[in-house]
């Protein structure tokens, strides 16, 4: 069966949403109390009459019990008294600003790319259609963090400013934008621990465009394909040991065993070298302790910005003694990049975890180069 993996993966991915209503392993864990988000746990949606109540939970690291609520609908005057204290956003939105390029694919998935009027880090955009609009001056860069161009944002008058934060300091940005009358919506997709949880944020974005039904239909296809590939990988006899990343100077930040990366490796039928770390966050480790643990690991993935194996040795020449390096089993997620530095893995990959999983299954169990987001470093 192992020899058939790449062909079976291709068939599943090309199948689209074939038989997507069929029950798969993930569905047994679906909470019936939250029919709108089955895998994501950083947001919830509730339909109340003609409105959607959207909530976002703990949208930055160590946020405690933070919660942000938004009421979405077309008629603010008819909002019930019990909901009037909640921030109201008129839908469908037509003009938005994004503080993360990962939001692009979530919006594109519901055919609303034209609504993007501003973005932070435009140089990192991979999407071809959006790049044309950026180069044509239709989409502008609004800056980042303390360098946000508030005057430009005011002139743009967006319906929504989609924001994310990595620490509590983002609260100052929220307050300033709100003081300027800019509707701000916090997002926490990057904190989801499951690949399907991140992809499911397309339903969160969809309600701002009154396109929940479309998003639900498209997500079902994604989930079906993901679980089909995952279930296929469960039948492997051997699971390769896998490690991730590159060090920064003398420190290697190791993703925990409950992290997004660890879940991908597990679902693809691999064994994450640090799977026993009971955390979802990346923790700093000294290079010496990491080296001894990865010396005999089978496969190395997500090796920073490395384009070939030789460049990896610039970090530490001892890496040439690693089993994965010696055997040429180093794969990086930078096959789809452009001249501007944009990497599609971090953009469309959020909405195509099934495609990423298909790559990893081929890497772990076949070792071929028929890949979409990944490439073998030579």
Keywords:
Rossmann fold, 2 domains, single chain, alpha/beta, 16 strands, 378 residues
Short description:
The chain has helices at residues 5-15, 102-108, 128-135, 150-156, 170-179, 195-199, 201-206, 212-233, 260-267, 287-294, 309-312, 323-326, 353-365, and strands at 43-48, 51-57, 67-73, 87-90, 96-98, 116-119, 140-141, 160-163, 184-186, 241-244, 251-255, 271-272, 282-286, 299-301, 330-332, 375-376.
CATH superfamily of the largest domain: Nitrogenase molybdenum iron protein domain
Query: How many angstroms separate the termini?
Result: 28 Å
Question: Can you give the helix content as a percent range?
Answer: 25-40%
Number of domains: 2
Task: Supply the CATH class of the largest domain.
Answer: Alpha Beta
Q: If classified by CATH, what would the architecture of the largest domain be? A: 3-Layer(aba) Sandwich
Low-confidence stretches: 17-33
Structural class: alpha/beta
Here the CATH topology of the largest domain equals Rossmann fold
How many strands, which pairing sense, and closed or not: the largest β-sheet? 5 strands, parallel
Radius of gyration: 21 Å
Q: Given the structure, what is the number of helices?
A: 13
For the largest sheet, list the strands in their spatial order: 7-6-5-8-9
**Gross morphology:** globular
Number of strands: 16
3D architecture notes:
The protein is an alpha/beta fold and 378 residues long. The protein folds into 2 domains: 39-224, Nitrogenase molybdenum iron protein domain (Rossmann fold), CATH 3.40.50.1980; 234-376, Rossmann fold (3-Layer(aba) Sandwich). The chain is built from 13 helices and 16 strands. The protein has a 5-stranded parallel β-sheet with strand order 7-6-5-8-9, with helices on one face. Strands 12-10-14-15-16 form a 5-stranded mixed β-sheet. Helix 5 (170-179) links the parallel strand 8 (160-163) and strand 9. Helix 8 runs parallel beside helix 13 (353-365). Residues 17-33 have low confidence and may be disordered.
């Amino acid at each position: 069966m192992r020899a058939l993996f790449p062909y079976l993966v291709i068939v599943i991915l090309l199948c689209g949403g074939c038989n997507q209503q069929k029950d798969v392993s993930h569905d047994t864990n679906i909470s019936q109390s939250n029919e709108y988000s089955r895998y994501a746990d950083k947001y919830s949606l509730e339909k109340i009459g003609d409105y959607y109540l959207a909530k976002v939970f703990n949208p930055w690291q160590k946020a405690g019990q933070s919660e942000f609520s938004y009421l979405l609908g077309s008629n603010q005057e008819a909002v019930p008294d019990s909901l009037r204290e909640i921030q109201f956003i008129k839908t469908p939105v037509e003009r938005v600003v994004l503080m993360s390029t990962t939001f692009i694919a979530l919006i594109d998935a519901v055919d609303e790319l034209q609504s993007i009027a501003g973005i932070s880090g435009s140089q990192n955009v991979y999407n071809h259609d959006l790049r044309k609009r950026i180069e044509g001056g239709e989409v502008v860069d609004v800056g980042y963090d303390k360098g946000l161009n508030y005057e430009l944002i005011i002139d743009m008058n967006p319906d929504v400013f989609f924001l994310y934060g990595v620490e509590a300091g983002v609260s100052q940005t929220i307050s300033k934008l709100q003081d300027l009358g800019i509707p701000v919506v916090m997002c926490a997709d990057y904190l989801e621990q499951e690949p399907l949880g991140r992809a499911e944020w397309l339903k969160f974005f969809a309600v701002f465009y009154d396109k929940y039904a479309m998003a639900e239909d498209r997500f079902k296809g994604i989930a079906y394909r993901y679980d089909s590939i995952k279930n296929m990988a469960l039948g492997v006899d051997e699971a390769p040991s896998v490690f991730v990343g590159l060090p920064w100077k003398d420190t290697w930040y190791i993703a925990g065993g409950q992290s997004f990366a660890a879940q991908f490796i597990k679902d693809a039928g691999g064994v994450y070298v640090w799977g026993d770390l009971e955390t979802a966050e990346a923790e700093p480790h000294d290079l010496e302790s990491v080296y001894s643990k990865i010396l005999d690991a089978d496969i190395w993935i997500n090796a920073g910005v490395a384009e070939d194996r030789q460049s990896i040795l610039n970090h530490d020449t001892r890496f040439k003694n690693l089993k994965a390096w010696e055997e040429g089993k180093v794969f990086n997620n930078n096959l789809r990049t452009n001249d501007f530095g944009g990497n599609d893995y971090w953009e469309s990959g959020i909405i195509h975890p099934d495609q990423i999983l298909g790559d990893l299954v081929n890497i772990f169990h076949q070792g071929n180069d028929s890949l979409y987001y990944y490439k073998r470093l030579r």
